Amino acid sequence: MEFQLCLSLFTITLATILFVRTLLRRNRRVYNLPPGPKPWPIIGNLNLIGSLPHRSIQKFSKQYGPLMHLRFGSFSVVVGSSVEMAKFSLKTHDVLFIDRPKAAAGKYTTYNYSNIAWSPYGAYWLQALKMCLTELFSAKRLKSYEFIRDEEMRSLLRDLHAAATSMAGRAVTLKEHLTTLSLNVISRMREVVDKVGGSVITTPEQFRWMLDELFILNGVITIGDSIPWLGWLDLEGYIRRMKKLSNMFDRFLEFVVDEHENRRRQEDMVDVLLNVANDPSLEVKFNRDSVKAFTQVYN
């Protein structure tokens, strides 16, 4: 009796699911999609994308043309791979294509899509863009930090001269020196260790690793980005790395914001962000996470 009851409930549930799916398919809008390779169930065309996605897409464009349709897991993707298609989407109809999908990197490494690189198009993003153009990266603001670039460039030349002298005719690897130059210009962290209560917050070496990890993780695509219902598995381990990095950055940025709130001398980008956040005329309020997210972008 119990078995028959369970079988009846299972049959009714299955029939209901099939009926709902049939209705959804009937009501679903049919698009005249561009040509493209036939997708597999669940994964779509992800099996055809190699370690260098741009080369895989270039290969497909030779076969299917400058406008093609791919299936990345649960999502349809229309790819334009010509000058004309780039102009169409980035210039002629840029407003239609200005939004971006919500990926794990934006959620876990930028305070839930709080910076301008990952936040969705809307009032918050437009306000952030205005702030960047008029406050953070204006010509006047960049000019005010010219002395830093000058000092660090002179330091680079001294380091290169010393390295060339000590290497005794062997080649000097420029990559590490140029990376150090960029970090010093951005953060002025040369020979600086942030401390609170006698404990080290972030060393320059750790900060360098954090930035490298941030660049890597903001360029990956997790399985959850393409197949959301499998995201909890974190098969690649990217989510775990993102959460670890987020905790490290948050500890550092909390210290930075606290330090600037205590002194407030109106001399750098964090001070500017704090002043903007306290502006009562803002259409969309910037909170503490917004300040940390934009500080992270600036770093």
Could you characterize the architecture of this molecule?
It is a single chain. By secondary structure, the protein is mainly alpha-helical. The protein is built from 13 helices and four strands. It has helices at residues 2-27, 53-64, 83-92, 104-109, 123-136, 139-144, 146-166, 174-187, 204-217, 223-226, 238-263, 269-277, 288-298, and strands at residues 67-72, 75-80, 194-196, 199-202. The strands form two sheets. It has a two-stranded antiparallel ribbon with strand order 1-2. The protein has a two-stranded antiparallel sheet with strand order 3-4. Strand 1 (67-72) and strand 2 form a beta hairpin. Helix 7 packs antiparallel against helix 8 (174-187). The longest helix has 26 residues, at 2-27. Residues 189-193 have low confidence and may be disordered.
Descriptors for this entry?
mainly alpha; 3 domains; globular; 299 residues
State the distance separating the first and last CA atoms.
Answer: 68 Å
Task: State the order of secondary-structure elements, H for helix, E for strand.
Answer: HHEEHHHHHHEEHHHHH
Report mean pLDDT, rounded to a whole number: 82
How much strand? 5-15%
Total domain modules = 3
Give the CA-based shape.
Answer: globular
* Strand runs, count: 4
Low-confidence stretches: 189-193
Tell me briefly what this model is.
Keywords: Heme, Iron, Membrane, Metal-binding, Oxidoreductase, Transmembrane, Transmembrane helix. The chain is mostly helical.
Helices and strands in order:
Elements (H helix, E strand, L loop, with lengths): L1 H26 L25 H12 L2 E6 L2 E6 L2 H10 L11 H6 L13 H14 L2 H6 L1 H21 L7 H14 L6 E3 L2 E4 L1 H14 L5 H4 L11 H26 L5 H9 L10 H11 L1
Antiparallel strand pairs: 1-2, 3-4
Helix pairs in contact: 7-8, 9-11, 11-13, 12-13
GO molecular function, one term: iron ion binding
Keywords: Heme, Iron, Membrane, Metal-binding, Oxidoreductase, Transmembrane, Transmembrane helix
InterPro entries: Cyt_P450, Cyt_P450_sf
